[in-house]
Amino acid sequence: MKFDIGILASQPLPIIVAQVRLAESLGFDTAWIADTHLVCRELWVILTACAAATTRIRLGPGITVPHTRHISVTASAIATLHELAPGRLVLGIGTGGSAAETMGLSVAKVARIATLESMARSLKALLGGGSIRLDTGGDARLAWLASPIQVPLYLAGSGPRMLDTAGRLGDGAIMYSGVAPWLLEAALACVSAGARAAGRAADELDVAIWAPTSIDRDRALARDHVRGRVASALRHAFPVKWSAEDQAVIDRVRAAYDSYQHASAGSQHRLLVSDRFVDLMALAGSPDEVREQVRGVMGVPGIGRIILLPQVPGQEFVQREQVLRLFADEVMAKL
Q: What does the pLDDT look like over 250-271, one tens digit per residue?
């Protein structure tokens, strides 16, 4: 099992770079930087600064979205960054959440299978030295790209059809469907079905999970810290059908969600997240509890990496640096 860090970069750039350097020193494999430009600092500036300040850790968008950047811009950006950090880049793509909502779009409106398929195929074509057809009717290519480059493409999804698409078209899949083994198994079945439909073996894919994470000696603090990130996950589709009681909680969270508090542990919408959904969706609690939760994830065959998603601290919440250190010392080192 590999362990990654996902970062909502609402803190100053030097702090984010220092956090990525810390993650590298602690043995984390990849740092994924969110692309939500009205809530966080600019994705590609951050990735460039992190690439210049590190030597080993992989870096990439986690995830970049199509409604704020033309796909040719994303291709040119990752290809340019490849010149600075060859062999260390990954490219996570999806249809988005907070970036859409802060632009006046709903998650449901932008969650289109055709959009994810088009992103994947267009990026592969452009980075491979080929061209794509534009909506205007013309063709586009990266004229400056001297030769094709290889950047692993991870498709993110939560509902059955998005997960299926990730299995069909991705080098990897990022599942945002919880941490409970039965939820992971349901999501993984969708990814595997997509892989089989494309004539691929499921084990050819590098499958990761987004995992809202908070770890602290104070169990109650850790669980409260993570509720805002769980609320974010509940806005998306799931590969399972919920009970009426569970669905009522999800509906209340979706109705109250404030995307401008997307990065904050102190968000008001976190108060609507029940303990049951913290258990199902997050790695949260004391070091001993989180270690056992991780063991549960590791018991699901086919999952190769866990992307920790610690919230940016609000007042009196846990610092991201503390989460990284405690997780490395009390979980990674003892598994």
A: 999 999 999 999 888 999 999 9
